[in-house]
Amino acid sequence: MTELIEKWTDLTAGATPEEADPVVLECARLLAAEPDGEQAVLLTFGLVGMARYVLGRRGADVERAAVDALAAAAAAMDEQVLQDGGCGHEVHPYTDSLEEWETDVDGLFHAPDVEIPFDEWDEAEACPRNAAGWARTAADVILPGSTDGIPEIVPEDHQRYIRSLGSVLNDYPNGDPFWDLDIHAAPPSDLSRAALAGYVVVAHANCWYAGSGRIRQRSLLDDMIEGLESVLPLLPDEACAHEDGEHPALRSGSDEQASEGIHLQSPGGRAVLREEHADGYGASLGAWTCTTFLRALAVEARDHLREAVDRLFGTRETAHLDPVYLRPDGRLDIGPLSERHVPFKDETASEEAALWAARRYEQIGPDGPALDRTVLLLLMGTAADSLELSYGIAREILGILRTAATTLPTGACDHADGHASGRERTSDHLARIAHLYAPDADPASGPDSGQGFRDEALTCPAHLVEVVTKGIAEIEEQFEEELEAEEERAG
After folding, report:
1. Are 270 and 145 in contact (CB under 8 A)?
2. Fewer beta carbons under 10 A from the terminal one: N or C of the chain?
3. CB 136 within 8 A of CB 71
4. Which residue stretches of 183-244 are H helix?
């Protein structure tokens, strides 16, 4: 056995099939020949240790041979313990490993080390039932669903991921959602079949929230796109043998999908999914890990994230809004333009209206109509203060506001009581701006909105400086990290 053990321990995940396959096949042959023999425990852990290599040999003979030998050993050793009247151990170390499982590849490192002399092993470690537990676990890592009898133990870390993603995807994050999503952005190294499936399913569940605009750091979306593209070579573009309706339906909410994706990433979690399938609901592990199914999810998630990057961080077209916010005579159609700046009505339309107003201000230039420039500045200030702007739009508006700040006159004014009321609602403030531009369009607001501040205070140069300064500060505070990162890249 010493010579065999040396071969097992010399085998690494990156070994060539020419040198590694014969070693694995010989161990599997010996174990399958005597699955409850004198050396069965050592042979089992020899195969468990080489499972990390077998993960890279999907579809090869060595994969099937290892799984069949491990399954035979698990059944034989359990039967042996049963015939002996039990082992006397209340617990076995493999269950502790299931509770502490992180990834499939890392989890296999918790198995007993065959290089340590067998007589130095802990009694429970050397127990055939512990070896049987590890045999089932390793077989499931290599080929999900190939063996039964794995305890439904979901690791505590995975339970925490499920809770945190559930909060985020239901739009009630407990902290910064960036970090809850970022930990799942890139796939783990040396992916097992099920870990690959879990990664793709979680990424698909997360992509809708990540692309919604609530995440303001572009780096997360870029990392998710890069991660999805990195696994596409493992997901061939081909048909599969599954019938209609066998693939997971994914009709549930994103939080449920994320939970299923996390379950796929541990043997105990997969046992939960397997039990659900046996009870008549949920897909089989074979369907969950189907590369045809996973490729469709990965491509859909990647394409959605790409579109979101363009929408949230790229240059947005606004020329099509000219007929909406300009009258035929070239004046602003202030009613629709101001109404679109009211928060929470239609976020996309609102931020596009804000961007149109900023570009219009820049377009007409310093020689443009003074009232138009004043109103557009006021709308930019309102947008910076009240709207949920995506970074790409906020960055462009910030640049225009910074330029405007260099051209506005400074100095004191006669408005000792200030220029606006802290109690004024955004909708009322926008109505005052609309009335300022087109008094006949909103006669109900009159020259005084009822807040004690006349409309003429809106046009005060000192007030405009306040509006621009506040707008700049609001955007710089909201997007401090993104602006600093962009400056570092440019510098």
Report:
1. yes
2. C
3. yes
4. 193-210, 218-231
CA distance 274 to 30: 30
Which tens digit of pLDDT belongs to each residue from 112-128? 988 888 888 989 999 99
CA 215/CA 475 separation, integer angstroms: 15
The H or E element that residue 79 is part of is helix 61-83
* DSSP secondary structure code for residue 459 in this structure: G
pLDDT in tens, 191-224: 899 999 999 999 999 999 999 988 878 889 999 9
- Provide the token pair at 490: 């440019």
Is this prediction's pTM over 0.85? no
Buried b (16+ CB within 10 A) or exposed e, 475-485: bbebbeebbee
- DSSP class of residue 448? B
**Half-sphere exposure of residue 21, counting CA atoms within 13 Å on the CB side?**
13
Please tell me the distance from the alpha carbon of residue 4 to that of residue 14, in angstroms, as a whole number.
19
- Residue recorded with tokens 């659900």: 276
For 124-141, the pLDDT digits (tens) are 999 999 999 999 999 999
Burial of 427 (0-12, 13-18, 19+ CB in 10 A): middle
